[in-house]
Amino acid sequence: VGTAVDRLQAIPGVHSVAAANSLPLTGPDNLPTQREGHPEQSIGGMEIRVVTPAYFEMMGIQVRRGRTFTTSDTGASQPVAVVNETLARQWWPRGNALGDHVVIGQFQGKIFSEIKDYSREVVGVAADMKTYAVTAPAQPTVFVPAAQASDGIAHGTGTLSWIVRAQVSSGLTEQLRRVITDIDSRQRVRRFQTMSDIVAATTASSR
């Protein structure tokens, strides 16, 4: 992922790049998750977002407490997570989520061996964002740095979306596609769309 970010950012006209397993308003992407040591605080379909450090800034998601991810959050460092405000209110209604731990792949004390993630320290609480539709409430969400995503999370969450802020020009999409296939010929860019397109699709019926 890091190599792709650098290569994409090197394309003329590209200002910033981030990646996530699922974008706002594009539907669920979930795995069982538990607050460590508290089997009564489990969610079987926790929304999991695997993101690169620039994701929060690019998507305009404010961090209410703590911090977001940095390039120092690597596979060799302490496994960390950021939770959204909805989950913080649900699991830590009278306290601070920072410094506590969550375990993806665990539900009511049961460990799902096919996921097999780590105990992650909560380092930040992020503002809520929409998950399914503009009119639907935000869902409890755990964010994981892409550099720390275990194989179980990567397989469980599926696809990867690249978020590119750029000066639109002819040939840009082809350059983006070429970079991805040059890095890994097995990867295919399925479609290009703007966030405006995504928002429009979710509000079409109400309009």
Query: Unreliable segments (pLDDT under 50, ≥5 consecutive)?
Result: none
Strand order of the largest sheet: 2-3-10-5-9-6
Class computed from helices, strands and strand pairing: alpha+beta
Mean pLDDT: 88
Could you give a quick summary of the protein structure above?
The chain is of the alpha+beta class and 207 residues long. The chain contains six helices and eleven strands. A hairpin with a 2-residue loop joins strand 7 and strand 8.
What are the salient characteristics of this protein?
globular, about 25% helix, six-stranded mixed barrel, alpha+beta, 6 helices, two-stranded antiparallel sheet, about 210 residues
Give a verbal description of the structure.
The strands form three sheets. The protein has a six-stranded mixed barrel. Strands 1-11 form a two-stranded antiparallel sheet. It has 207 residues and is an alpha+beta fold. The termini are far apart. The longest helix has 12 residues, at 172-183. Helix 1 (2-9) runs antiparallel to helix 5. The protein has helices spanning 2-9, 55-58, 85-91, 151-157, 172-183, 195-203; strands at 14-20, 30-35, 38-51, 63-66, 80-84, 101-104, 106-107, 110-111, 119-126, 141-145, 161-166. The model has no long low-confidence stretch (mean pLDDT 88).
